[in-house]
Amino acid sequence: MIAAMDISIRKAERSKLQDLNLDDLPFGHYFSDHMLEADYENGEWKNVEIKPYQPLLLNPSVAALHYGQAIFEGIKAYKDAEGNAFIFRPQDNYKRFNISAERMQMPQVPEELFMEGMRQLIALDKNWIPTRQDHSLYIRPFMFSSDEVIGVRPSDTYKFMIILSPTGPYYSAPMRIYVEEKYVRAAPGGVGYAKAAGNYGAAMYATAQAKKKGYDQVLWMDAFEHKYVQEIGTMNVFFIIGNTAITPDLNEGTILDGVTRQSAIQLLKEMGFKVEERHLSIDDIIEAYKAGLLYEVFGTGTAATISFIKELRYKDFVMKFDVENWKTAPTLKNWLTDIREGRREDKYGWMYQI
Ligand code: COI
Questions:
Q1: Given 168, 203, 230, which residue is the final one in a domain?
Q2: Which of 67, 74, 106, 139 has a CA 20 to 30 Å removed from the CA of 17?
Q3: How many Å apart are CA 295 and CA 51, to the nearest integer?
Q4: Domain boundary residue, one of 130, 146, 168
Q5: What is the pLDDT of residues 53-96, one digit of tens each?
Q6: How many domains does the chain have?
Q7: How far apart are CA 49 and CA 161, in angstroms?
Q8: Is 345 among the domain residues?
Q9: pTM of the model
Q10: Residue 232 bridge partners (DSSP)
């Protein structure tokens, strides 16, 4: 019941937009004029407010800072040539948000708070949606525990918020990837499938080690044998081997159920590929590479969209890819961009109009 959700709106006195060049935006550095904030107390969501973007005042004992009950989502809004604003597949992110919440023993966020709150916030800050190629308005819904108690237990109170960041490409150039054999991102039974803040913090050490060796990101492998591929950096990963597109399956709960991943699967099928969601070992990848059948490797993610991998290093074996002559990943990227910006038919009903 959308009407049941009472959202109060307090507008900023002056827009910061005039101080910003929307044509030159690094990822996640700037935030729009308004934000949404809501509180969970005594088993219900209340104080739902859209107000000027501003700092939070937090007690140092606030539970999220100590024990990491914190989850988030990443969604993007675009404009078509007529200036109409759309959000890409927000319902899918909404569902995943509550899956993450359940895993982290946090309350469910009602659909009307997430969806209608986001819609009203974006309607208010619509002018912040950049129109330049590869640019969009990145939407960051998040929730954290807010009890001011440092006993280890699920919090009784939570904050749900949405902030908006006009943004450019996350990874702008093709990437060099280090196949990680020591550190792991996720194990069966863990929180790999949840968009939990700690997953990202826990990945930083291994990523920093790979960067020291001259790589942009790591390819995460399974926790037991370090043999089966999982994800690349903050993205899902696809391998084009012959006329088959292969991406790791979600069955063990170690892989994030990416919305861009789901979209890529759909569009690759539309292109005529056989798509397999399954275990894929690094040995099979190397074998395909040596046979000349490993054509393309790319990552998919909301922030990253489609990111091309130009090099993959496993131990001392280096696989290099001729990204300039690729067909599939560039087509996929163009199709997605064209759907998002209204130049290609939205036949799967992905675009949610504001
Ligand atoms: C996203 O793709 O939205 C992500 O969550 C990646 C990252 C910026 C944390």
A1: 168
A2: 74
A3: 49
A4: 168
A5: 999 999 999 999 999 999 999 999 999 989 999 999 999 999 99
A6: 2
A7: 9
A8: no
A9: 0.95
A10: 219, 235
Shared domain check, 188 and 159: no
Choice from 171, 260, 302 to test ligand 1 binding pocket (greatest atom count within 8 A of CB): 302
Pocket lined around ligand 1, Cβ cut-off 6 Å: 74, 200, 234, 301-304
Distance CA 137, CA 146 (A): 27
Tell whether 13 and 145 lie within a shared domain. Answer: yes
- Other Cβ atoms less than 10 A from the Cβ of 42: the count is 7
Q: Which two tokens stand for residue 179?
A: 């196949």
Burial 200-221 (b: 16+ CB within 10 A, else e): eebbeebbeebeeeebbbbbbb
Query: Residue 137 in contact with residue 128, Cβ under 8 Å?
Result: yes
In the predicted structure, residue 20 carries a pLDDT above the cut 60: yes
* Claim to verify: residue 207 and residue 158 sit in the same structural domain: no
Nearest residue (by CA) to ligand 1, atom 9, is 234
Helix (H) or strand (E) holding 285: helix 282-290
Asked if 159 and 201 sit in the same domain, the reply is no
For 273, the domain range is 175-340
Task: Say yes or no: 185 and 220 in one domain.
Answer: yes
190 Cα distance to chain centroid: 19
Distance CA 107, CA 184 (A): 28
Mean pLDDT of 108-126: 97
Number of C-beta neighbours around residue 243 at 10 A: 12
Residue entry with tokens 């590869």: 134
Pocket test for ligand 1, best of 234, 259, 261 (most atoms within 8 A of CB): 234
Q: Which atom of ligand 1 is nearest to the CA of 170?
A: 8
Half-sphere exposure of 350 (CA within 13 A, CB side): 25
**347 inside domain:** no
The interaxial angle of helices 90-103 and 259-270, nearest 10 deg, is 140
Is the predicted pLDDT of residue 164 greater than 80, yes or no? Answer: yes
Q: Assign 295 to helix, strand or coil.
A: strand
- Same structural domain for residues 69 and 192? no
